[in-house]
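Changelog note: in this version the structure field was regenerated for every chain. One regenerated record is shown below for reference.
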Amino acid sequence: MNVLIVDDEPLARERLRHLIARIDNFMVLEHEASNGRDAIDLCTKLQPDIVLMDIRMPVMGGLEAAKYISNMERPPAIIFCTAYDSHALEAFDAQAVGYLLKPIRLEDLTMALQRASRLNRLQMAWLDVQLPEQHHEKEHIAAKTLRGIELVPLNDVLYFMADNKYVTVHHRHGEVLIDDPLKVLEEDHTHDFVRIHRNALVRRDAIESLSRNDKGHCFLHLKEVPEPLSISRRHVPLIKKIMQSL
């Protein structure tokens, strides 16, 4: 069984490597990751059997990364290495997700690896785990491209535009297509984005001004977006209210 280690602390990664070397039938991959985003890239390229992953890491934490990894065609089993207290751990345990409480002991690691090696994809479908809001919200938008999974930081997204069954994510560095429904995006990111039309969500703090053409059609101007977006009349009052609070 090939194991990928993901932790932002070099000493923690080294300790896991030494412990796994003492366990039969498990081999640590040469490549390691120090954050969730790199973990997703390595899982796509190397297809490990098991991932040992810290929860609190820079760039992208372990919980968010695990959601993307679990949706891969051949997802690895994920074991969290965490310092969370027992109350938070109960949430993971209830969903059959392995976890190890730091500092990690050889006996516990052995049992967790053996258990993870028996997990199948159904048992890894833990995406509905009820976690505290600050850990459950996504900080990235994931798009499947020819290069694999492309992650766009949510802070870089300016607006979402729906067209048939796909949604275009317009961000500061370009655009990507995703298949997430606009309604789901609206529910997941209601604090950051607001609907202005049946086919568009815009970033609240990017709203700049409103205008109307000679035919009476309303348009919304966003910071960093050269072309104005059409806004339905029924959404104008809400947008004006948001503009007053910015």
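Spot check on this record: Confidence is low (pLDDT under 50) at residues 120-136. The radius of gyration is 21 Å.
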